[in-house]
Amino acid sequence: MSTDDDTKIRELLTTYERALNTSNAALAASCYTTDGVFMPTTLPTSSGGDLEKAYAGIFEVIALDIVFTFEEVVVTGGDYAFVLTSSSGTQTVLAPEVTASESNRE
Questions:
Q1: Which residue of 23, 54, 63, 103 shows the fewest CB atoms closer than 10 Å?
Q2: Could you tell me the sign of the dihedral formed by the alpha carbons of 87, 93, 97, 100, in that order?
Q3: How many helices (H) and strands (E) are present in the chain, helices listed first?
Q4: Which of 42, 87, 83, 90 is nearest to 64 (CA)?
Q5: Cα gap 21→87, rounded to integer Å
Q6: 77: buried, middle or exposed (CB in 10 Å: 19+, 13-18, 0-12)?
Q7: Among candidates 63, 56, 22, 15, which has minimal Cα distance to 38?
Q8: Pick the residue with more confidence: 78 or 27?
Q9: In this predicted structure, what is the pLDDT of residue 101?
Q10: Per-residue b/e over 22-46, b at no fewer than 16 CB within 10 Å?
Q11: What is the pTM of this model?
Q12: Which residues contact 86 (CB under 8 A, 6 or more apart)?
C-alpha cells in the first residue's frame, strides 16, 4: 500500500466523520461510490440516489458527536481497500433532547 493511498482513505473517512458530526446529509452521501450501500442497524438499507435522503432522515432524529479511530487500513491492489475503524462519542436524540453513549465498529 502506498502512503498516498493510505492518506486518501483516511481523508475520506475523516470527511465522513465530519459529515456525521455536522449532520450534513449531502456530504455523507458524497463519501460513497455510485454503488455504495448504507446499512444502518435499525433502518432500511439505502444506496445510490437514496443515500442523501436516508442520511437526512437520520439527522432529523439524532445528532452525533463522535471520533473515529483507525484500527487498520489495507489496500489490496487496484481499486479495493479494507478499513477497520471504531467510533465513540455521543448521540443526542433531538426530540425530546436525550444524550446517550454512542459507539460502533465500521
A1: 103
A2: negative
A3: 3, 5
A4: 90
A5: 12
A6: exposed
A7: 56
A8: 27
A9: 86
A10: ebbbebbbebbeeeeebeeeeeeeb
A11: 0.87
A12: 68, 69, 71, 103, 104, 105, 106
Q: Is 40:53 a contact under the CB 8 Å cutoff? A: no
For residues 51 and 26, give the distance between their C-alpha atoms in angstroms, rounded to a whole number.
9
DSSP assignment of 31-81 equals TS-TT-EE--TTS--EEGGGHHHHHHHHHTTEEEEEEEEEEEEEEEETTEE
Q: How far apart are CA 52 and CA 86, in angstroms?
A: 23
Work out the angle at residue 54's Cα, subtended by the Cα atoms of residues 49 and 60, and round it to the nearest 5 degrees.
140
Tracing cell 463522535 back to the chain, one arrives at 66
Predicted confidence band of residue 1 (pLDDT cuts 50, 70, 90): low
Give me the half-sphere count of Cα atoms (radius 13 Å) on the Cβ side of residue 95.
4
Dihedral angle sign, alpha carbons of residues 75, 16, 101, 55:
negative
Calculate the CA 91 to chain-centre distance: 14
